[in-house]
Write a structure and sequence with these properties.
With 336 residues, the protein is of the alpha/beta class. The protein has one domain: Ribokinase (UDP-N-acetylmuramoyl-L-alanine:D-glutamate ligase). The chain contains ten helices and 13 strands. The strands form two sheets. A nine-stranded mixed beta sheet has the order 5-4-1-8-9-10-11-12-13, sandwiched between helices. A four-stranded mixed beta sheet has the order 3-2-6-7. The chain is globular, with a radius of gyration of 19 Å. Bound molecules: adenosine-5'-triphosphate and the ligand O=C(O)C[C@@H](O)[C@H](O)C(=O)CO. The site of adenosine-5'-triphosphate (ATP) has 23 residues, from helix 8 and helix 9. The site of adenosine-5'-triphosphate has 23 residues, from helix 8 and helix 9. Keywords: ATP-binding, Kinase, Nucleotide-binding, Transferase.
Length: 336
């Protein structure tokens, strides 16, 4: 059991809101992008990855976002539909805005970076009129992703979605998803992230992302408990701080804390860990599992995805994750 209350009468498990983009992952890995010749195209964008992860795990996902009226936009919508994700609230944008491109550089399994082409990005053209109250009302939970707060009108659209979620008994997950290249200043980032976080039930971020959020209000703090405690005075029930290979730590409003382990991984690339962790963690919570069981599921999913070339295309089924956990525990001599 956990401390979240999902309304089981709602037909959609999780609606993700925000970035639908394209990943172009280098095929010639373990070298700088200057030496890369070919790339493989995948659907990308953190909230898109999380929605895809949710669907592959076996839950019903939906999406609110905008795509460009071009080949990339059609590829994205088609891929989501193949995963049985509801695309009825994806708007085909006619402004000429372009799909965000993430060129990924895999210099080594531990030295990866992303070259972002996000000029006039279509995902940030999301408008309040794209947010349908009747659609959000159908979800047990929504996921907002911090990058969608970076510019208007996307920013206002997200805050409207938050208001509808709070009005209709919809649990709100906030993946901080801080991508500096999308913001003008850290002060602006910190202010808007804090305003959004006040309305959320579960906040997930890395230590560095929380440092950014606290840069104005509690500069220099690196204490995870101090970070988490602040949000329980608002709507938060669970706060998760991710620590890469070291795993994760969570705190609950009731005063519990849990350490999430990481799992062995034959790392191909590091990115994708956060999105796969989030989708599997949310899956566990929606299944009614304990917070620590859900964290374990998230950690195992992450170790699978970083061992594969893609993010979205690499998302595992619930059976794959469970089997991997059992395999690791057996090899570690633990009772399964
Ligand atoms: N090298 C690794 N080996 C095993 N598990 C890992 C590794 N890196 C990350 N993880 C798992 O993934 C979770 C999330 O990773 P991380 O803390 O890097 O989040 P993130 O920075 O949001 O990820 P991303 O790189 O996708 O942005 C960790 O808590 C851990 O469980
Ligand atoms: O979220 C992004 O814009 C980048 C993603 O598309 C990419 O898959 C990644 O970095 C996932 O963590």
């Amino acid at each position: 059991m956990n401390n979240l209350k999902f309304n089981q009468e709602k037909p959609i498990d999780l609606i993700a809101i925000g970035r639908l983009a394209i990943d172009l992952n280098a095929n010639e890995i373990n070298r700088p992008m200057e030496e890369t010749i070919t790339f493989t195209k995948y659907v990308g964008g953190s909230p898109a990855n999380i929605a895809i992860g949710t669907a592959v795990l076996g839950h019903k996902a939906g999406f609110i976002g905008r795509v460009a009226d071009d080949q990339f936009g059609r590829f994205i919508v088609s891929y989501l539909e193949e995963k049985d994700i509801d695309t009825s609230s994806i708007v085909i944008d006619q402004s000429g805005a372009k799909t965000g491109l993430a060129f990924t550089e895999i210099k080594s399994p531990t030295d990866c970076s992303i070259l972002m082409y996000r000029e006039n990005a279509v995902d940030l053209k999301l408008e309040p009129k794209d947010i349908k109250e009747e659609y959000i009302k159908q979800a047990k939970a929504i996921l907002i992703s911090g990058t969608a707060l970076a510019q208007s009108p996307s920013r206002e659209a997200v805050f409207l979605a938050l208001d509808f979620a709070r009005k209709h008994d919809v649990v709100v997950f906030f993946d901080i998803d801080y991508r500096p290249y999308t913001w003008k200043s850290t002060d602006e980032t910190s202010v808007y992230y804090n305003l959004a976080a006040e309305k959320c039930d579960v906040i997930i971020g890395t230590r560095e992302e929380f440092d950014m959020m606290e840069s104005l209000t509690n500069p220099g703090n690196d204490n995870d408990f101090v970070t988490a405690k602040k949000w329980f005075d608002y709507n938060a029930k669970i706060v998760v701080i991710k620590h890469g290979k070291e795993g994760s730590i969570s705190y609950t409003k009731e005063g519990e804390s849990f350490k999430g382990r990481s799992f062995p991984a034959k790392v191909v690339k590091t990115f994708g860990a956060g999105d796969s962790y989030a989708s599997a963690f949310i899956y566990g919570l929606m299944e009614g599992w304990n917070v620590d069981q859900s964290m374990e599921f998230g950690g195992a999913s992450a170790s699978i995805v970083i061992s594969r070339h893609s993010c979205s295309d690499a998302m595992p089924t619930a059976e794959e994750v469970k089997t991997y956990i059992e395999k690791c525990k057996k090899e570690e001599g633990q009772s399964v």
